[in-house]
Amino acid sequence: MEKALENTKELLLSHQFYQQQALTVARQLLGALLVRRSPAGMTVGKIVETEAYGGPEDKACHAWKGMTERTRIMFGPGGYAYVYFIYGMYHCFNIVTGSEGDGQAVLIRAIEPLAGLEIMSARRNTDKLTNLCSGPGKLCQALAITRADNGVDLCSDQLQLLSGEAVSDSQVIQTPRKNVDYAAGAKLFPWRFIIKGSPFVS
DNA sequence: GCGGAGATTTCC
DNA sequence: GAAATCTCCGCG
């Protein structure tokens, strides 16, 4: 794995890619590789579950009420990390998409662990592969993503995404997003994308 | 300032 | 099914 990731420049997803609409990016990110480099070592996973957030109709989006200090990064151009703290104990990792001023993002909900498994296991305190990164809070813990990563450029070394094997439409399931019941009309938007049959989804 | 609620996870 | 636990945000 480490060897395969030595020369990845041409696989690195560009700022131009992230500046598409959140829905498009959420679908396209399925199968992409999330690469995390930290002092403890490199951890890598394949994205198997995403959710799109954004637009004037989407009450579930943090940016819906306008820009605040927390959501400031969401209103910048796509290609940067938006990390927030939730329920007093967990972090969620998002990818800012669209153009400056849009206020949209894609939540990474689950990845399939591919490299750095020992590091992830130690951070998560479990050996069970399907429990390492099968949820937004879990994968942040496994990859040691915290608010210190808010605003990080996704073309930088510490955190980046590489295009992976193409995922065809027949392998993709779309469903409503999780835990957004409070969001009136937006709660039924089918903006959650899953790789069909993956045991690593949340 | 205060209080409510949240893109969750875990354990009883 | 509820607790853990803390920041953000709206209201005054």
C-alpha termini separation: 24 Å
Shape: globular
Approximate helicity band: 10-25%
Strand content: 25-35%
* Count of individual beta strands: 8
- Whole-number average pLDDT? 95
- List unreliable stretches of 5+ residues: none
SS-derived structural category: alpha+beta
CATH-derived architecture:
Roll
Number of helices: 4
Please identify the top-level CATH class: Alpha Beta
CATH topology: 3-methyladenine DNA Glycosylase, Chain A
Number of domains: 1
Assembly type of the shown chains?
Answer: single chain
Question: Which H/E pattern describes the elements?
Answer: HHEEEEEHHEEE
Largest sheet: 8 strands, antiparallel
**Mind telling me the C-alpha Rg?**
16 Å
CATH superfamily: Methylpurine-DNA glycosylase (MPG)
Task: Describe what this molecule looks like in 3D.
Strand 3 and strand 4 form a beta hairpin. The protein is of the alpha+beta class and 202 residues long. It has helices at residues 15-18, 22-28, 117-124, 136-143; strands spanning 33-38, 41-53, 81-86, 90-97, 104-115, 159-162, 172-175, 192-195. Strands 1, 2, 3, 4, 5, 6, 7 and 8 form an eight-stranded antiparallel beta sheet that branches. The chain contains four helices and eight strands, in the order ααβββββααβββ. 13% of the residues lie in helices and 28% in strands. The structure holds a DNA duplex (12 and 12 nucleotides).
